[in-house]
Structure formats: C-alpha cells, structure tokens
What we know:
The protein is of the alpha/beta class. It has 17 helices and 29 strands. The chain has an eight-stranded parallel β-barrel. Strands 3, 4, 7, 8 and 9 form a five-stranded antiparallel beta sheet that branches. Strand 15, helix 8 and strand 16 form a beta-alpha-beta unit. The longest helix has 26 residues, at 669-694. It is elongated, with a radius of gyration of 27 Å. The protein starts with a helix and ends with a helix. Residues 112-113, 205-207, 211, 225, 231-232 line the site of calcium ion.
Amino acid sequence: MKTALEWKHYYSKREFKDNYIYCGKDLGAACTDAGASFKLWSPAAERVTLNLYSAGDGGKTMARIPMQKEEKGVWSWHTKEDMHGVYYDYTLEMEGEKIQSADPYAKACGVNGTRSMAVDLRRTDPEGWENDRAPEESAERIIYELHVKEFSWDASGGFPEEYRGKYKAFTCKDTTLYNDGVHPTGLAYLKELGVTHVEIMPAYDYGSVDEAGDDSQFNWGYDPVNYNVPEGSYSTDPHRGEVRIREMKEMIQTLHSCGFRVIMDVVYNHTYSLDSWFQRTAPWYFYRVFDDGRISDGSACGNDVASEREMCAKYILESVLYWTEEYHIDGFRFDLMGLLDVKLMNRIRKELDERYGKGVKILFGEPWAAGETAIENGAPRAPRGNIDLLDENIGMFCDLTRDAVKGSALKIKRPGFITGASGYENDIAESAAAWGKTGVSSIKGERAPAKAPSQIITYVSSHDNQTLWDKLGETASEEERMRLNRMAAALYMTCQGTLFLLSGEEFGRTKDGMEDSFNAPVSLNRLDWALAWKNRSLVEYYKGLIALRRQLPGLCDKSSRAAERISDIYKSDGVVGFTVDNTSEAFSSEWDRLRIIYNSTKNGISYKLPGEGWEILCDASDSGMWRHRFPAGNRVTAESQSVLILGHRAQFSGFRAGIVHIHSEEKTDMEQREEKQLLKKQRRRKRWQEEQDAV
Ligand code: CA
C-alpha cells in the first residue's frame, strides 16, 4: 500500500482531478419499496463487493454482490427489490489488499455503526412529521447548549425511567421535579427561561460509547463515526437501524412544537480514528498530511479532515444539507471551525441561504484550532483572525469577551473584569459593540472589525472548560459568588451579538471545578434539576434579563451598523459605561435610550442623570425592574460588583447625553453617606412599587 505522502501526491495530480471528481448527489444507498441503489466513491479500488446481512452485527452474509465500476471512481449496484432494513458493507480490493468497510455515505447503521443499513427514510417519519415546522423567530436568539444524556439522566428531572438519557426524554413536555407536579423541569422549564434555540451536543453516530454496553457510560461525543446517522446510545434500541432515526426526529418534532429551534453540533474537522470509512474506501483522500509525510493533527484528536479537497468539501456540504432536509435542523455549530477552510464555510452559508432564505439557518463555530494543520495550497482557514473573510452570517464564539468578563478559561486562577482584574476595560467596551468598532486582530496583524453582530457569539460558558460557577469560585469568595454570577449574566446579556449559554449556567451548575469532563461520569455531567430549584433566584435573574433583552432593539440589532448604536463610552478602573441608541423601525421599544453601567469595583458609584424620563430596568439583584416602570430620579447608584441598566422612556423627548459619573474616591464622607441613603431609598421604592403591582 502507498504511504500517506504517496497518496497525497496521487490526489494532487491533474490527472486525478480530471478523472475522479464525482458531481452526482446519489452516493450512499437510496431505498424505497420500488427498489434500491448503492453507490460508493472509491477511485483506487480495483474491485468492490457489496455484502448484505439481515442483522447489524453478527449472523450470516445473505449475499455477496460484485459492484459495477462506473465513471469518476464510482461503484454501483441497483435492484428492484425492497431493501429497507437490510444491513450492508463493502469489501474493497486495492493494491493487493482486501479491505472491509461500512459506507461513509450511510444514512442508517447497525449497533455501533460498524455495518450500514439501507433505509426507506419515509418509513422512519414519526406521525405528523410532514407538518413539522420550526417555530417563528423572536426578536433575539438565545442559544442553550444541551447534551442529550445530561438533560434527562438525573432522577430529579422526573422523566420516565426508560427515557432517561434518551432522545425520547425530549418528547416529555411536562416533567416536574421528582415528578412532584409543581416545579417544572426539562422543556417546560426551558420555555419559562425564555431560550429560543436548543443546541444539541454531538448526536450523529460517534464511537466512544459502546452502544451494546451499559447505560452508565458517558461521553460528549466529539468523535464521529457515521456523520449522517444519529448516535445509537441515545435510542431505545441501537440494534434496529430505523429506531434511532425515528426517535431523533421525534425529539426535534417535540422541540419545534414547544417553540424551540434546534441546532446541531457538527464535528467535520476530525474523525474518531484514522481507521475510518473514509480511510478504508479512499485512503488518505479525506485527511491532511504534511509535505514531509507527518500526519496533520491540528485537532489534537489524531487527524484533520481535508475540508479543502473537492470530494471532502462536497461530503461536508451535502451532510449539512441532509440534516436540514431530512431532520429539519435549524442551524449548525461547527467544532474547531478554525480548521475548516473559509471557502467551504461560505459555500455552506450560500447554499443554505438559497434554499431557506438569507441567514435563516444559523451557522457558527469555534474560530480556533488545537495546533498546526496541513491545509493544502495555502487555503485560508476560518479562525477568529479571518473574520473579515467570512460571510456576515457565520458566527464565532467570542473567547475575547468570555475571557474579558470572567478571566481566562484556560488559566483557571486568572481573574477577569468582574473578578477585579485590571486592563480589561477596552475589551469589555468592545464586547458591548460585538467587536464592531476596533475589532479583532486579523491574521495579517491588522485589526478587522466584525462585519455585524451576527458574526459574534457572546457567551461566558460552554461545555469546554469550567462552568461559570466553578470558574468564579477560583478567585471569588463564597459570599461574592452569586452576586458575580448575576453580574456576569447581566454583562454579556447587554452586549450585542448572539447570546449563548451552557445548560445550567443559569442555576449555578457545577462540575466540582473540573475543566474537561468529556468522559467523566454522567453523575458529574448530568443536569441537577434540584439545584435549578434551589438556586431559583439566580434562574429568575436570568429569566428577567432574557425577557428584557427581547425588548431592546439596540442590543438585538444584527445589522452592519449596530456598533454605531453604542456611544458615550466611559471607562475607568473596573468600570465601563455606555449609551445605546434603542430606537428601531423594525420593532418598538418603550425606551429610546439605554445607559448601561458595569461596575466591578467594590464601591457603589453614583450618577447624575440628565433630564427626565429615566427608569431603572435592572440592578444588582432584580432584573425584572423594567416591569414596574421604576423611575430613577435624577441620581442613581450602581452598586458594587453589579450591572445597572437604565432606560430613557421614549415619550420624554429631548434626551440629553452627558451622564456624570461620580467615583467613590472623589466623594466626600457626606456624599458617601448620601449614596447609602439613596440606595436604601431606591430599594424601598422598589419594594413599594412591587407591592403596588401586586395589589
Ligand atoms: Ca455510536
């Protein structure tokens, strides 16, 4: 067999490109009751045999059928028989070796994905699937990152025993805490919280969990085996290929009916191992190799998929389109997008836009890699520094904002803006405008502003690294922690960009400080719904912020001019304040201007407000003040370690700029006493207002 480098040279030749790039969209097995066709792309094979089986593993071979060689490296076989439910794989003869492989283009498979299955997809549709539609979009997308097993594993969720950890758990709409009938968990809880998009962590077929093994196994699943098949361990029967398909569709159907759009986490940058169906059918075509023969490992997972090669780009694009068409997926989160090439990402964006409308399917990814990669011909990749090369509707997780707010995710003891570190004020101010002013450092060493807030995913926690609660605990006292969690939430939720959170961030989720829980026990990773109710006040704070956000067009704006709405920026040690133009023709808001103050110092800061009509929308402890039309008077205080959100009521004309910040060090004792009084008064008035509202 040729070496990796010899294969690389073979695929780079003009002759190969002229003769073996196949444009048809029919690779894989297509199957109806009128017949089936099997097509495999394997340009180097000398002979290919299709093996048929009645089971997904074990048992006898039902038939061995020689495949017909067609043009462009394609092998095919057709039949008029109904092949639905028949399992298959291929035997390829190549350079004197016999290689057995499942179908890289498979749409169904047996247990652990080692054999493919022919499937008539119409026979996998749950009842009413033809009427399944994504819910209407609201003023803002709030993305909630969720793992299938974590969601329903814990007994506190109140899910039926047999559905815990499965796709089926998502079909239970009205679960409650230990089934008490009172405290919503699961989807009912998420609905109340106000999230709009559920991002499902890897749910394509991955390799790290034995589907025939016991139910206590856990993995995040960033190790793809079959890209176009759902993972079997989340189904109630991984041995029957059609079950996982139907159950995943049922999950999506229920999520849609409950008002959530569904985003899929996709890992096209690497495969579970180099011994993949890609490799067995087209050796080294789908992988990057350096010119000195070293195997590219920019993913730190042992291999890098060569997204820039024609047949590989085609594979990834068609896979994305397949999930949208067959499973009604509403968006994609690309793992290590920084390893994929810009051309492919923009092409996916364009194809989705043409089919579904501009920006309708949400696309974003991780704009980084874990190491050097051997991309061919200097094709530009999609890390953060190439933000200017990507379509305005391709988003990036903004680690700059994440780390500025809470401190480095990687250096756990390092504090951030809210935990008292100095020097982050510029990044915080830039975060407010979703990096649309001075921008991020480009690959060329210049600065490239984000084209629009649609390019920025604003977040402070995801499945990687510590949870927000655990990170805060590294530097903050127990007493400060809850307060700082509220501050972190109010801070990023008042920045432009698309909002994203790790499930449970809103209830102080903990993994006992663990940084990388990808294969830790499910007992550590699971969502603890009892904690969600114990920390109810924090959940309420998030709820108020999300509901408020939807009423603030100045922050929701995803247009290229959104950054211009942020003005009057004030920065001093530990303090950032800015004004937001909250007027909008698209949707009306009660407030025409916002003044937002991030105060991470340990002192309160007072402000003189110009003119009339200011209201307090959110303070350190209450994110629902906006519901009460709470007047601010002409002087307010931003409490220590908190965010204060002020709104200027639209009917009071003559908004004037020029809010005066009064710092504690400049204050006389008298002023400091006054400030305390003022704060007390503010709180008393708030209580009074609430009582009035209650009456
Ligand atoms: Ca699997």
